Amino acid sequence: MAELENVIVCDHPLVQHKVTLLRDKNTGSKEFRELVHEISMFMCYEATRDLPLKEVQIQTPLGELANSKVISGRKVAFVPIMRGGLGMVDGALALVPTAKVGHVGIYRDKQNGNTATDYYCKLPFDIANREVIVLDLMLATGVSAVKTIDIVKKAGAANIKFMCVLTCPDGVNALHKAHPDVEIICGAVDKGLNEELYIVPGIGDGGDRLFGTK
Ligand code: URA
User: Which residues form ligand 1's pocket by a CB distance below 6 Å?
Assistant: First the structure.
């Protein structure tokens, strides 16, 4: 497959190992949730790689250090798309505990897979001043992701990334066509979509596997 632009695949062996366990149909909900948590931590490490640093002066037990680095400037907001993105929040917060969390509820319309309906939105009031990382388990058709980023941009956010465990070329292309500025961080880019618009080989229905609803 050709390299996809503006997509970071976390190819670290630990992430790839955990994505394989996640794909396995015999992995139960408890382990699935734990894996999503761990993979989200690793991906968040990549997603926050370009946070700006500033130098500070500190006193170590053995002396003074004039140019030690701490994160400065923009703060972070995570915006999980319900339901799948909810499973990624705690992993992301483990790395950036001071981040605020907004929520967007959205579902792809059954009759027409090319449209989505949003039914819930609660975002941090200062989202415009934050580095926003939208979270969803899967970037499949891209319909929900595009609409969520429309909503987040309308609220003032300008620096947005999209973090998902799995995607495919259809999702990447749809998201980048609508929002070319949004970088995608993922665990793997799969082959494509089946007739029911599931990613193949994929993980099946991520929300159901996460919450044991099937
Ligand atoms: N949502 C899922 O849960 N799984 C897919 O494969 C695609 C979208």
Answer: 84, 138, 140, 198-199, 202, 205-207
